[in-house]
Design brief:
By secondary structure, this protein is α/β, with parallel strands linked by helices. Helix content is about 40%, strand content about 15%.
């Protein structure tokens, strides 16, 4: 359901269901609730949030932003992200590139800003077609910034293109594409800078009528300009409802980054700041970190008040035909391409479902001192290279809302896809890329991996560069001058422990389920079992389990133990002996030359590694192991030694020869333990540790 308006309505229906369930059991719940059960700082469930990003000016900035969108989408799970449009279409190519990446590979729905300033109808039609081909189904229709050299719009000004105003753009989108696109428009609680403002500070009736006309022309929802006076916003919502604007109104929230930037931006946009806000910031105005912290507190307080005061006026059912429903159930954060402040605000609101607010706060404080990777500016919000995984906010977020063990695509043509091979679990964008032109995607069962065939993976893929940054960034993570195999082992172990954020085979941090065996995994890697994929066995865990759960309520989930690693030929032989001694295990191995080894495999069929049993549904098996797919993955995995690691060192140097030797001699080994129901713990892990002990 990629149209934002449809997703908003779904969230509202969920809220009503939760509220109804809560009210029906409120009497008994009240007698049994303790202070530990409910946090007064957390808001009630059933609200949503989204993020805005803008295209950076440099390639390094673009790489960093794509990484940040991936991370924030995965960890914070926004309802959507919006990508801004540069003045007069100056960022067209970058805006579309970021939107396409987010929609296709970050698996988050995109709201594409589109301004009509200076554009012909033909150009707008072309842009809409490009957006559609990228999977984007949501447009924020704007008039845009005034054309150069005009500094500001004046009342009555038109865009200079074929569409004079945003309403004309809304009409054109509906004419060309019907209901395919969800359309948002801008709202200005304190009035548009080019509009007249009433003496009491409220928006003029003429501007309110313009907004209603845009909605009557086909727009679905409103996102407002940022503000700091909640009273003005609440009055704005009442004005909208009073003239018959019945759609969702999403308030824009801009976290305060510094005192000087607050004064500059509010002055430029004619935004008023209450004296109570200024007084709190004035005392620490020279300390940006203190300003940021107080700014997050202010933003969280604004959100709580808006939710509390608007929900008290809303009806008990979702019905957008009720004109006096002043409820607001979501926020759009103007991130300024920064991450920490937004994360802080959401954590304080309880949106991340953190187990321990104290540990979450400690994580944020620790991240404040982390170093940057290839940052294009010295902003206060930095891309982290070091993270304490046991304390990380978003890593501790519960996973009970997962639809599948992996994040499903938001692309229409992949809407029914529900099965993937495990090998690309830590490089999902690579898998999406190489299957992007498939006509059909596995649904229910994997089927024959040779039809359709896997696509070729180009060495020039953009994903090879942006995930780990520039060469200097990669050297900082992978080693400036590794001389021994143990130096390489240490890099893998530090990735498991969280002090190295990525390795070539793992775009994402360690998965939460692997935290349970983190020390053991680190030990195995220091023994030369270089892990690129693993999962522990699960025997009928509830589908709402905080770590293993997926698929909805009322089900049970299962998974076989799996371990995938690079190992030397000698250790491959030891693993072969290990698997031979355990009838429940099977092993597949291949080296860079294509020499295969199979142990315990009678016929190389597809194995379900993760499956779930749910009420009124067939058994789902979303993660599988396919021997043929494993060989395709192995080609990619071995190529990453060269493209991402070997290329960092001078030809003929000791480091170059070390990485080349490991690439050419090591095996990629995959071991499956079918004894998922054992009561003896993780049998496969115990056996591997025994092999590792012999290696040490």
């Amino acid at each position: 359901m990629p149209r934002i308006i449809d997703k908003i309505r779904a969230v509202q229906y969920e809220r009503i269901a939760v509220s109804s369930q809560s009210s029906s059991s409120s009497t008994s719940a009240a007698t049994n609730t303790t202070s530990e059960d409910v946090s007064s700082d957390d808001v009630q469930p059933g609200w949503h949030y989204s993020f805005e990003f803008f295209p950076p000016k440099t390639e390094a900035g673009l790489d960093n932003l794509l990484t940040r969108i991936d991370r924030m989408s995965r960890r914070l799970n926004p309802l959507f992200v919006s990508i801004t449009w540069g003045a007069n279409g100056s960022t067209l190519s970058r805006t579309l590139a970021i939107a396409s990446h987010a929609q296709r590979f970050a698996c988050v729905d995109v709201l594409l800003h589109l301004s009509c300033t200076g554009l012909t109808r033909e150009q707008i039609a072309q842009i809409l077609n490009m957006a559609k081909s990228s999977g984007v189904r949501n447009i924020l229709a704007l008039r845009g910034d005034p054309p150069h050299p005009k500094r500001a719009w004046k009342e009555g000004d038109v865009s200079g293109g074929d569409c004079d105003r945003a309403i004309d753009l809304v009409k054109l989108i509906r004419k060309l594409h019907g209901d395919y696109f969800g359309i948002g428009v801008a709202g200005h609680p304190e009035g548009h800078p080019s509009s007249l403002i009433c003496d009491d500070g409220t928006t003029t009736s003429l501007e309110m009528q313009h907004l209603k006309d845009k909605l009557d022309a086909g727009a679905d929802f409103v996102i407002t300009q940022f503000f700091y006076d909640v009273d003005i916003f609440l009055e704005y919502v009442k004005q909208c409802r009073g003239i018959g604007i019945k759609c969702p109104i999403i308030p824009g929230i801009m976290p305060i980054q510094s005192y000087s930037s607050l004064l500059k931006m509010t002055s430029f946009c004619n935004i008023s700041v209450p004296s109570s806000v200024l007084d709190r910031l004035e005392r620490v105005r020279l300390d940006d970190e203190a300003v940021k912290k107080i700014g997050c507190e202010i933003a969280a307080e604004m959100c709580r008040r808006i939710l509390a005061e608007t929900s008290s006026t809303s009806s008990s059912a979702v019905d957008y035909s009720i004109g006096d429903d002043c409820s607001v159930h979501g926020f759009h954060f103007y991130t300024l391409n920064l991450e920490r402040s937004t994360t802080r605000i959401l954590a304080s609101l309880g949106a991340l479902d953190i187990d321990s607010p104290t540990s979450a706060g400690a994580a944020l404080q620790e991240n404040d001192t982390d170093a940057t990777i290839g940052s294009e500016t010295n902003d206060q919000d930095q891309i982290v290279t070091r993270r304490e995984r046991k304390e990380s906010i978003s890593e501790k977020a519960r996973s009970t809302k997962r639809v599948l063990p992996w994040k499903p695509s938001t692309m229409d043509n992949r809407s029914k896809e529900d099965v993937r091979p495990i090998n690309w679990s830590n490089r999902p964008k690579s898998y999406v890329m190489r299957t992007d032109d498939w006509d059909e995607f596995p649904n229910g069962r994997w089927g024959d991996s040779t039809s359709p065939a896997f696509g070729e993976l180009s060495d020039l893929s953009h994903f090879y560069s942006f995930t780990l940054g520039c060469d200097d960034d990669r050297r900082a993570m992978l080693g400036h001058c590794p001389l021994n195999e143990s130096d390489v082992y240490e890099v893998f172990a530090r990735y498991v422990e969280g002090t190295v954020p990525h390795i070539p085979w793992c775009e994402t941090p360690l998965q939460p389920e692997s935290f349970l065996i983190q020390p053991q995994l680190a030990k195995l890697n220091r023994c030369g079992l270089l892990t690129v994929n693993s999962q522990p066995p699960v025997d009928g865990a509830p589908s709402n389990h905080p770590t293993f759960g997926w698929g909805g309520k009322g089900g049970r989930v299962y998974q076989r133990g799996y371990f995938e690693c690079f190992v030397s030929p000698d250790k491959t032989n030891r693993l072969t002996s290990m698997v031979t001694k355990h009838p429940s295990m099977i092993m597949y191995a291949v080296n860079n030359a294509g020499q295969e080894l199979r142990v315990g495999v009678e016929e190389g069929g597809v194995t379900a590694l993760t499956w779930g049993v749910f009420p009124n549904r067939e058994i789902l098996q979303p993660t599988i192991f396919d021997p043929d797919a494993f060989l395709v993955w192995a080609e990619e995995a071995f190529s990453l030694w060269s493209t991402m690691w070997l290329s960092l060192y001078d030809f003929g140097s000791e480091s170059y020869e070390l990485i080349e030797k490991m690439k050419d001699t090591y095996y990629l080994v995959a071991i499956i333990d079918n004894d998922y129901y054992t009561n003896d713990g993780f049998l496969l892990l115990d056996a591997l540790l025994e092999v590792g002990g012999k290696c040490s």
